[in-house]
Design goal:
Metallo-beta-lactamase, Chain A, alpha/beta, 7 helices, 13 strands
């Protein structure tokens, strides 16, 4: 599969998932459709758009995407011809939020997507069970901040962090999923309390069998694309 991170972070989120046959879907709608058109990698229209929750950086432009595909707004399930998504309710303040296990039907492959979530272990048991059942190895997952910088930060810099995954939260989550050789792309990094070069090194050190990349979104006309 190919993952085109068009935008990620508090200023807006949009992820294009493309299978090996060229079929695609979108996750989130936090940037204008014109940004998608400018940075798209797929050559055919997306089959659907999945939105995890009703925050502006994820859902602000959802009505623009209705013009090109079916938009699924924080639904537990979503399906198109070549993709199927199963949602899991996760904690993110008081907002209904889903993480998704996405099946690429033609490829018979899976991607786990999660962003804007808190580490509440009792809510993850079903997710871990399904990751093990389907032998999921691909993760597009939040690493909003690193705990080292968090503990050195002031109160203002820490605002909002308690509603997001840290680097240690991500490590604990992947370890408990029992993924053997996880391919991890981190998303939604904080401009205040993340250090991208540190993130990749830290997670790779904690999970030696993993392959780790840090997504930053399209910048200055350069796409941010990952093949996994």
């Amino acid at each position: 599969m190919k993952i085109n991170v068009i935008a990620t972070g508090s200023s807006g989120n949009l992820y294009e998932i493309i299978d090996n046959q060229g079929n695609s879907i979108l996750i989130e709608a936090g940037v204008p459709r014109s940004t998608y058109i400018k940075n798209r990698e797929g050559v055919t229209p997306p089959e659907m758009c999945i939105i995890s929750h009703n925050h502006q950086d994820h859902a602000k432009y959802r009505n623009e995407y209705v013009m090109i595909c079916t938009v699924n707004k924080w639904k537990q399930t979503a399906k198109s011809e070549n993709f199927k998504a199963l949602g899991y309710s996760v904690k993110h303040g008081d907002v209904l939020t889903y993480a998704y296990l996405i099946r690429l039907i033609a490829d018979d492959d899976y991607l786990f997507f999660a962003t804007d979530l808190e580490y509440v272990e009792e809510t993850f048991s079903v997710i871990w069970k399904d990751i093990k059942t389907y032998d999921v190895e691909n993760f597009l997952i939040e690493c909003n901040f690193n705990d080292f910088l968090y503990h050195k930060a002031n109160t203002e810099q820490r605002v909002g962090c308690d509603r997001h995954f840290s680097d240690n939260d991500l490590v604990r989550f992947i370890r408990k999923s029992k993924a053997k050789n996880p391919k991890i792309i981190t998303i939604h990094g904080s401009n205040r309390l993340s250090a991208d070069s540190y993130t990749k090194k830290y997670i790779s050190g904690k999970i030696p069998t993993s392959t780790v990349a840090v997504a930053v979104g399209a910048k200055n006309g350069v796409k941010n694309i990952f093949k996994i």
